[in-house]
Amino acid sequence: MFYPWAIHRGENVGASMRPEVSLVIASYNSRDEIERTLCRVQEYLGKQPYLHEVLVVDDGSTDGTEAALLDFSQHYPELQVLGNGRNMGKGYSIKKGVLEATGQFIFYTDADLAYPIEEIEAFLKPLRQVTHDAVVGSRVHAASRFHLHPRYFRYVHKRHLISRFFNWIVRQLFGIQVLDTQCGFKGFTAEAAKAIFSRIEIRGFAFDVEVLLVARRLGYRVAELPVIFAYEGEVSTVKFLKIACQTPIDLTRIYWWDRRGRYGDKA
Hints:
The chain has 267 residues and is α/β, with parallel strands linked by helices. It has helices at residues 31-45, 65-73, 90-100, 120-128, 153-174, 190-197, 207-217, 237-259; strands spanning 21-27, 52-58, 79-83, 105-109, 134-138, 145-148, 186-189, 222-226, 228-231. The radius of gyration is 18 Å and the shape is globular.
């Protein structure tokens, strides 16, 4: 397969040269989706003045995703493909990628690239200026924008109400002030990312709550930034019910671990 944006950086791609940006993506049964995402990521990041790396963690896919990723990596030297062997969950996959990343700043985003890769520049600014240790996207920020087909309005509105209730519960339980814990676009300094993710245990979608709680317990400064969110389809009923059943269990675990002092301090 030919990739029109395959860019070889020559002398810039050296084992001794540390990338400034690492981007981690968890992928499960998303062969066509992840290829489109990587084309967009490569086209954009390949034009930037800083070195980068992309780590895609294949979470036990059965649709040929891993083979497609390995094929793509032949034309994208900054791409590293990691595999779980079997389905382990998004939280497990993101943790694996973050702990393997070598960049000065480490980001993670969704496989469908619902948040345009171009947004990374605004997120890099407070990290580079050392005003914050972590930056998280917020779909409820006053400056955020949604791109979606009118047929999804009702579903997105219902999802928004559920999200508001979920975040209210999280704030009551843990004192986390972030208004959109589940936004799939977050970035960290390498030091903060390693300290936080080395303590993460939740393997499912509630791992974002644990990430933000650990960041709070370790005293890291977190900024919420607006995002552009491109919504292209509803979550399947089966997937939604699975998440809805597992999330209360995971929140209980996080609460119990926090009460026992598991998250500790930087020392």
